[in-house]
Amino acid sequence: MPTTKNSSIQTYYEVHGEGEALVFIHGLGSSSGDWQFQTAFFPEYFKTIVYDVRGHGQSEKAKGPYSVPLFAKDLAELLNELGIEKAHIVGLSMGGWIAFQFGVAYPEMTASLTIVNSWADMRLKTLQDWKGYIQRAIIFRLFSMRKIGEVLGAKLFIKPEQKGLLNDFVESWAKNYKPSYMASFHAGVGWSVADQLGKITAPVLVVAADEDYTPVSTKEAYVSKLPNARLAVIEDSRHATPVERPNEFNQVLLAFLRDIEN
Fold first, then answer.
1. Full-prediction pTM beyond 0.85?
2. Structural contact between residues 24 and 50, judged by C-beta atoms closer than 8 angstroms
3. Integer angstrom CA distances of residue 231 from 38, 113, 223
4. pLDDT digit string (tens) for 5-29?
5. pLDDT tens digits for range 99-134
6. C-alpha 69, offset from chain centre
7. What's the pLDDT score for residue 133?
């Protein structure tokens, strides 16, 4: 089991293939295993790296509090341990927060960013924002991780032919360690790089599912603030696009990476 000790925690990671480094960062309550369709495809083209974010998967369940800058620091230290000076960074949902933060804090290590169904601003600005946050916090504390996985999964994988994906999602979610999950959940509250997007000069691809939690217009708004960004919309997809529509996602990402190489 490949692990490295950094920031006083043990981090699980996998490396597949050779070439330029391409790093995938999973979402909240997920793990490196959820990039299975990407680790089967991209090693033909890139040194493909997946890892478990602090408190997730097979990485150490370090005591909180956590923060998005801390997550980004963990990634920088992992890359340093692996001798990688610069990498293409792909982040889904919470992984998108980390990718954005990494691009701001470590521009010299950022070859490109791909932000998938994520946000640049997690500040609670309205009464509705606060209401939603409090409701989620209460639900997460009251119910088991398996039950939460069942509820969330039913919203992500809605088609009969996605039954296998739904079952895998629930089984994976049930393995979450609740204190680490809650620490990660709270890490995003109040976090924002909205006022720093202009500092990100690396090429950025924003991937938006047409049926994500937030509308495509939300992604368009922060794409317009990035100096070198483009938007790709994947239709008939919800929040877990890389799993739900892996072929379309992989081709969109590969086309972007090839284009910026030229």
1. yes
2. yes
3. 20, 12, 7
4. 666 789 999 999 999 999 999 999 9
5. 999 999 999 999 999 999 999 999 988 888 888 888
6. 14
7. 85
| Domains along the sequence of the chain with CATH | 3-124+191-261 (3.40.50.1820)
- Cα 261 from Cα 121, distance rounded (Å): 29
Please tell me the distance from the alpha carbon of residue 217 to that of residue 199, in angstroms, as a whole number. 22
Handedness of CA 206, 209, 215, 216 (dihedral sign): positive
pLDDT tens-digit readout, 165-186: 999 999 999 999 999 999 999 9
Answer yes or no: are the C-beta atoms of 86 and 60 closer than 8 Å.
no
Strand order in the sheet with 204-209: 3-6, 9-16, 47-51, 21-25, 87-92, 110-116, 204-209, 229-234
First to last CA, the chain: 36
Question: 21: closest CA among 38, 52, 57, 45?
Answer: 45
180/21 Cα distance (integer angstroms): 28
Task: Give the tokens for residue 165.
Answer: 């994906």
